Amino acid sequence: MSSLALINEFLGQPPNASSHGYQIDHILEFCHWFMGALFLGWSAFFVFVLIRFRRGRHPVADHRGVRSGISTHLEFSVVLIEAVLLLGFAIPLWAKRVNQFPPGKEALLVHVIGQQFNWNFHLPGPDGQFGRRDVSLVSNSNPIGLDSNDPAGKDDIVTLGELHVPVERPVIIELSSKDVIHDFFLPDMRIAADAIPGSLIPMWFTPIKTGTYEVICGQLCGLGHYGMKGTLAVDTPADYQAWLKERAELAGGAQSAPPAPSPTPGG
Fold first, then answer.
1. Distance between CA atoms of 207 and 167, rounded to whole angstroms?
2. What pTM was computed for the model?
């Protein structure tokens, strides 16, 4: 880590764990130092103005005001630097994130559905196919409305608040919401996007470090917003395949289990 990057750590930013995160970190480093320089510069200018134009030195007001062009040049320089940051760094990086998605065959596709106040994760099973979802099937036991009669969904994996992905493999997320606007935020992966009802928002990242990371909601979404958290587990390929097999077997068992008998009246 460079000495310049220490400012990000000082401000509480967690270590980067994604392939693209270093680019975002570099922009943040520059922005933070630039904002610090602006703060010191404008603070010094403010103190200078208080002393230079104090009442004791200028007992009579001057209607012509300041005739120096230094402040104009300073403001123009600040605008120029901000334009370079925006046009030269921020927009190209954002365009790359939006337009250069990894090939679908190489990536793991995950459906993420936000709700007050949880994250639902839907992954295809070993067959690689997603089962059909229907909003009319949504219930407390079936939060995403997965159709149990669809053969493609027999081995689908649905988890609440816990997502597993393999390391060094691109992950494409299709983000949506069941109720209000949420914000799916993975601080360690340097990605965030709003989950909007009625919209499917794509986003992607490639994890480069195994470990367990925090999933949070970055958008005030109700009284329980503070508790809308989850975990992202980045596994080795072998551990991920073992987890995938275990979850698929559990999903298949749940699909094939007979429904519980209805209670008899008066029983």
1. 5
2. 0.78
CA 164 – CA 111 distance, rounded (Å): 12
What pLDDT is recorded for position 266?
43
pLDDT beyond 70 at 258: no
Please state the φ and ψ torsions of residue 256, each to the nearest 5 degrees: -90, -10
Question: 128 and 193 in contact (C-beta within 8 Å)?
Answer: no
**Fold adopted by 108-256:** Immunoglobulin-like (2.60.40)
* Gap between the Cα atoms of 242 and 95, Å rounded: 36
- SS3 state of residue 234: strand
Q: What are the structural domain ranges in the chain?
A: 6-59+66-99, 108-256
Strand arrangement of the beta sheet that strand 108-115 belongs to: 157-160, 118-123, 108-115, 171-177, 201-205
Q: How far apart are CA 9 and CA 16, in angstroms?
A: 10
Q: Where is pLDDT greater, at 236 or 101?
A: 236
